[in-house]
Amino acid sequence: EAGVTQFPSHSVIEKGQTVTLRCDPISGHDNLYWYRRVMGKEIKFLLHFVKESKQDESGMPNNRFLAERTGGTYSTLKVQPAELEDSGVYFCASSQPGLAGKNIQYFGAGTRLSVL
Amino acid sequence: AQSVTQLDSHVSVSEGTPVLLRCNYSSSYSPSLFWYVQHPNKGLQLLLKYTSAATLVKGINGFEAEFKKSETSFHLTKPSAHMSDAAEYFCVVTGGSGGYNKLIFGAGTRLAVHP
Question: How far apart are CA B69 and CA A105, in angstroms?
Fold first, then answer.
């Protein structure tokens, strides 16, 4: 069974440009999450999809970030326009709904974004 | 609000010696606690989880952790380190008012294993 796949693995862009990150969850997983680790900081929650619906987007830093999950399968995270402070590693995770506390999230390898 | 503190940013051990990675949590509710590991260029892998069952939790690759409510700790241990254990380890808490979907990560502990 394929795990969570993220593309690209690394992206280097200039300030002001647009970048789109993609995440393919484990097949059949309804829950999809985005997290981010900025240099030197903790991994932080960005948002949570249940199928195609945004369940919780409380961690999105500002309106330059747009996440979509059309059709409830893969998801994209677009940053437009990118700023220097957006540099970091963006992780995607997926899970199946389960009993409280048993909702194990499976993570991808992350996309390393460098904004110059 | 929930939080996690990993007490050491770097830990260095010799191969064959015990590993101790320390984690303290803060939660107003009964938390679920996890340890994840990230090897270079790999995704975060779940090592073990505590979800209010047995307080001593066994995970993969010989790791285990003990939930101590009185000390609000969830330290990760392994009796004998292997070179392949070199990685970054994250203590994670969830549950409470934020629900069980939002994971709250500690800052991470980098484990180095020397021959």
Answer: 24
The pLDDT value given to residue B40: 86
A59 to chain B: closest CA residue: B102
Compute the Cα dihedral for A61, A63, A64, A68 and give only its sign.
Answer: positive
Q: What distance in Å separates the CA atoms of residue B88 and residue A42, rounded to the nearest whole number?
A: 12
Chain B residues whose CB is inside 8 A of the A101 CB are 32, 49, 51-52, 94-95, 100
Q: Which of B43, B45, B46 sits opposite A110 (nearest CB)?
A: B43
A1: confidence class by pLDDT, cuts 50, 70, 90: low
Bond preceding residue A8 cis, omega within 30 of 0: yes
Cα separation, A65 vs A45, in Å, equals 13
**Chain B residue at shortest CA distance from A57:** B102
Tell me: the pLDDT tens digits for B55-93? 899 999 999 999 998 999 999 999 999 999 999 999 999
Cβ B44–A3 below 8 Å, yes or no? no
Is some CB atom of chain A closer than 8 A to the CB atom of B70?
no
Chain mean position to CA B70: 18
Report how far residue A6's alpha carbon sits from residue B27's, in angstroms, rounded to the nearest whole number: 32
Number of other residues whose CB lies within 10 A of the CB of residue A74: 16
